[in-house]
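Researcher: Structure prediction, please.
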Amino acid sequence: MNDQLYLFLKQYDKPDLSPSSWKATLMDAVYHYNNHCRTRYDELETFLLYVKRKESEAKRVEPV
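Model: Predicted structure follows.
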């Protein structure tokens, strides 16, 4: 996942949603990103990569 897509998805990351709604919202955002940018990212795979990257960034920010 490139930085542009990651930042795009961060705009749709709404922690107050239920887990299933949150996942659906992000996967829908990937679909719209693909249409707008003429890319072919897989929605589920991209969602999983987004979660992994988000967790990785959160670990780097946490104090030791």
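Model: The chain has a mean pLDDT of 93.
Researcher: Thanks, that helps.
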